[in-house]
Every structure is written in C-alpha cells, then in structure tokens.
Design a protein that fits this description.
By secondary structure, this protein is an all-alpha fold. The longest helix has 21 residues.
Length: 147
C-alpha cells in the first residue's frame, strides 16, 4: 500500500510538472504519464485525486505558500519545489485518510529525490508551518500521538 501511494505521488509530480510545461489537459497528461511509465503499479485513485485537487486549488494553495515563505520571493522558488509543496498541501487538505505526518514525510522524500540538496529542509519548514495553519483554521485535525 505504501509503495503504491509513493509511486502515485511520484507520478502525480510528473503529471503536474508536464502540465506546467505543456499546458495540456489533465486527463491527457495523466494518460500519457501512465503510458510512459508502462502502466506501473500505483494507487491510481490517489494519483488522479492529487492531480485534480492540486490543479483545481492551485491559486489558494499558492497563496498559502506565498504567505508562509518568509524571505523568499515566490517566483524564485524552484518549480519542482512549488509542485511538491502544492501537491503536499492538497494532500493534507483533501486526503483525510492519510496522516499529515506521512504527507509531510513523503514531500520531504520527493524533494530529496527530485530537487536540490537543500530543498527538503525548505519544504519541511514550510509544510510544518502550513500544517499548523490548517489546524488553526479547523481544516485538519492534529494527530494524536500515543504516549
């Protein structure tokens, strides 16, 4: 299950990046990415949900990133980092069955794999602040930690 979700997140990242570069419609890019990856084993429902929620809510998600990326000009944030952040924020808000710490951890892993050496630190800090904002807004609930 975890491997299928990780693969879905990686493919969603590919789809969102390809959409950014090509301007092609969502369904076409998803189909193309699935074909290019030779129909890999992944949680295709999560893939489609992440892509749709991320692209449909891009403006409000970008506003969250702008508000929380102190000392960073939004336009200077690497495109891959923006996409990782957008996808993770969409997952936090819309994937209620995935624990927030898993979402944040997966975003950090994506940054380590696909971005610069320091990106994971930036993404971790930003996601932590956004996670707490979403709790304050009542959009998500804090995780209960066992003692």
């Amino acid at each position: 299950m975890m491997k299928l979700r990780r693969q879905a997140r990686e493919m969603s990242l590919q789809v969102l990046y390809a959409m950014e570069m090509s301007g092609e419609p969502v369904d076409q890019v998803i189909t193309d990415v699935l074909l290019l990856n030779e129909n890999p084993e992944c949680d295709e429902t999560l893939l489609r949900d992440l892509v749709r929620h991320t692209s449909a809510n891009r403006e409000s998600i970008d506003e969250r990133i702008r508000n929380r990326s102190r000392n960073w000009d939004f336009n200077r944030i690497a495109l891959i980092d923006k996409i990782i952040l957008r996808q993770a924020i969409a997952e936090l808000i819309f994937s209620e069955d995935i624990p927030p710490r898993v979402t944040i951890s997966e975003a950090i892993e994506l940054a380590k794999k696909y971005s610069t050496d320091d990106s994971h630190v930036f993404i971790n800090g930003l996601m932590d602040r956004i996670y707490h904002d979403l709790i304050e807004e009542g959009r998500i609930f804090p995780e209960v930690t066992e003692t």
